[in-house]
Design brief:
Blueprint: E1 2-9, H1 13-25, E2 32-35, E3 52-53, H2 64-83, E4 87-88, E5 92-96, H3 101-113, E6 120-123, H4 124-130, E7 138-142, E8 146-148, H5 150-163, E9 167-169, E10 172-180, E11 183-190, E12 197-208, H6 214-218, E13 233-242, E14 251-254, E15 266-269, E16 275-278, E17 282-284, H7 296-303, E18 315-325, E19 337-339, H8 341-344, E20 349-353, H9 359-376
Parallel strand pairs: 1-2, 1-12, 2-9, 5-14, 12-20
Antiparallel strand pairs: 3-8, 4-8, 5-7, 6-7, 10-11, 11-12, 13-16, 13-17, 13-18, 15-16, 19-20
Helix pairs in contact: 1-5, 1-9, 2-9
């Protein structure tokens, strides 16, 4: 039976970042297998988001989301510069309408508590000078928010990891994970739908970075208590493209919704300067990436709060993604969950649950965190 020092399940941006980090910090003799159910990397949540580099503004003080987003922001910009990954530090405007000034003040206070100290409050006149198409009474400017080519980033992570010996196995699904004298014994099924074969190997350490399927994978791990598997709630977010020209230089966000699920339908830019809006929030039980064109009317109503003159006819369905949240809209916001032996009592096992936004921004910092946790196991 073939043996690897480490198996990482899930080749989204988190699994890729972990593989790249560990291939760099650990011995060349430390064999790493990275597996994913899809044929190529980053086919789910990692490639179906706003591609925003977040600053770390909204998250609860002391949370992993706040800390790892702030650390990841700097790491991500540095990585993009080092490896020539396309990005743009656009800055972000958080728009408050009349009567929403107190909400803006709370956001500024939260950001400061999280160590994001570069926000600048601007008035109506300054906002109009920066973005003539945008209407608001006040705004906060976040200069370190930006956008990234997430696909280029993930491909570079894979390239770097593979150059140091990491083996990537696509079209591979874990069937069971048993305890073994060498750590774990993993039974997989690999290949396309017409030629599926089982494959068994052992590994010293096992990382569950399976994203939407993290809870499902955890249930296949022998001796893991169900108390260590948090409940997941899938929320679909759809995006629409703007089919008329509006000149925007910044990302534009409204004051967040009162629910604990999303930041509201906001305007983002792609690296070519195109404008898209999203995501909205829709609870789903199954994967469904189709964008319902009938949602354009709701989008237009939300967008007109800060960009007047947008009608449903101006919006074209673009794409959708699903977020693995650990709470419902009516429940308190939950943090990232990164479990190690201290949490579940199983040596060599690290699990990541609820890695939604700002997971892309935090990915390199999450990889550093997992590296430190693995060293203690």
């Amino acid at each position: 039976m073939e043996h690897f020092e480490l198996c990482i399940t899930g080749a989204g941006v988190i699994g890729l970042a972990i593989a790249e980090r560990l291939s760099k910090t650990l011995s060349a003799k430390y064999t790493i297998l990275l597996i994913d159910q899809h044929s190529s990397v980053g086919q789910e949540t990692s490639s179906r988001n706003s591609e925003v580099i977040h600053a770390g503004i909204y998250y609860p003080k002391g949370s992993l989301k706040a800390r790892l987003c702030r650390e990841g922001n700097a790491l991500l910009y540095n990585y993009c510069q080092q490896f020539e990954i396309a990005y743009r530090q656009t800055g972000k405007l958080i728009i408050a309408q009349d009567g929403e000034q107190s909400s803006l003040e709370k956001i500024a206070k939260q950001a400061n508590e999280n160590g994001v100290t570069d926000l600048r409050e601007i008035d109506r006149q300054t906002l109009h000078a920066l973005e003539p198409s945008v209407t608001g009474a006040h705004a906060l400017l976040s200069p370190t928010t930006g956008i990234i080519d997430s696909h280029g980033f993930m491909q570079r992570l894979l390239q770097q990891a593979e150059s140091r010996g990491v083996q990537f196995a696509g079209l591979t699904q874990v069937l069971e994970v048993k305890r073994h004298t060498k750590g774990f014994e993993v039974l997989c099924e690999s290949g396309d739908k017409n030629n599926r074969q089982t494959y068994r190997f052992s590994c010293t350490a096992f990382i569950n970075a399976a994203g939407l399927q993290a809870q499902q994978l955890a249930q296949k791990i022998e001796s893991l208590s169900t108390n260590n598997i948090p409940q997941v709630h899938w929320y679909k977010g759809s995006y629409f493209k703007l089919n008329k020209r509006i000149k925007l230089q910044h990302l534009v966000y409204p004051v967040p919704e009162h629910s604990n699920i999303g930041l509201g339908v906001h305007a983002t830019l792609d690296l070519a300067g195109g404008v898209r809006f999203g995501p909205d929030v829709e609870a789903v039980a199954e994967k469904d990436y189709a964008v319902n064109p009938m949602r354009a009317k709701q989008f237009a109503e939300a967008i007109r709060r800060y960009i007047p003159g947008i009608n449903s006819d101006d919006l074209v369905p673009d794409y959708a993604g699903i977020r693995p949240k650990l709470h419902r809209a009516t429940e308190p916001v939950q943090d990232f969950v990164i479990q190690s032996q201290a949490d579940h009592g199983i040596a060599g096992l690290i699990q990541l649950f609820g890695i939604e936004s700002p997971g892309l921004t935090a990915s390199l910092a999450i990889a550093q965190y997992v590296d430190a946790e693995l060293a203690q196991n």
